[in-house]
Amino acid sequence: MPDSDPRSFSRQANIHCLYCTSAYDQPHSNLSIDIHRTWFFFPWHRMMLHFHEGIVGSLIGDDEFALPFWNWDSPDAMTLPGWYMNEPCFDDQRDFSRFPPKVCDLNFLEDNDIEPEEQIHLNLALMYKQVVSGAKKPELFMGCPYKAGEGGVCDGPGTVERAPHNTMHKWVGSNFQPKREDMGAFYSAARDPAFYTHHANIDRLWEVWRGFTNLTCTIWILINSNLLSTSMMRILSL
C-alpha cells in the first residue's frame, strides 16, 4: 500500500511518532501533548491498536480480526515469536542476537550472560512487582495525572510503562543504531511489526490489573472504563 494512503503501515507508524515526540500542542495553548510517561499511556495506545485492527480487518475482509499479543510475561513466550523471522513481519532494524532461543530480559539495561532459567525467574519476579505488589494505587500503575491546560512537566510513567514496556522496546531494537531503532526509539518504534503485538500484550496487562484493582476515585474509574469516547477516537483522524 502506498505511503500516500492514510491506512498504510508507514502512515500509521508516523501517527505514533507524532504523538510521542511532542509534535502537537494542546488546543489554544503552547503546551505540548505527549502520550508517554502519563496516565494517557494505556488508553492512547489502546485507541491506536483499535484503529490498527480496524484497518487490517477491513483490508483482509475480516470484521472480527484481532491482533495477537506477544505474552512475554509467560515463560513459554519469552523469546521473539517465530513469525518475526520472515517477511512480511521481519524488520532488519533489530538486534539479531535476540532471535530464538534467546530469552528476553524484561528489565533490560545492558547485555548479560544470565542463564535462561535464571532469566525466566527474574522476569517473573519483575512482573509480579510491576503489576501486583508495586502497583497497588492507580497512579503507580497508570502514571501521573496529565490534564489539559496544566503547565510544567508530567514525567511520571507507571510501573509497566517503565518495565517491561520501555525495556522490551530497547531489548528488541538494533544494537547498531544510536537509539536502538526501530523499536528502541519513540519516533521509529511503530515501524517494526513487533510493536503491535508488544503493545497488545501491554493492553492485556492493563486488563489483568483492572481485574483485581478496586477503583474508587471518579477520574480513575473514567480512565479505566471500557468506552472510547468520541473525542478520544477523533485523535487518530487528525
Automatic annotation (TrEMBL):
Domain (Tyrosinase copper-binding): give its ranges. Answer: 36-53, 192-203
Q: Which InterPro entries match?
A: Di-copper_centre_dom_sf, Tyrosinase/Hemocyanin, Tyrosinase_Cu-bd
Which SUPFAM superfamilies does the UniProt entry name for this protein? Di-copper centre-containing domain
Molecular function as annotated in GO: metal ion binding; oxidoreductase activity
Keyword annotations of the record? Metal-binding
The superkingdom of the source organism is Eukaryota
Protein name (Swiss-Prot/TrEMBL): Tyrosinase copper-binding domain-containing protein
Species for this entry: Prunus armeniaca
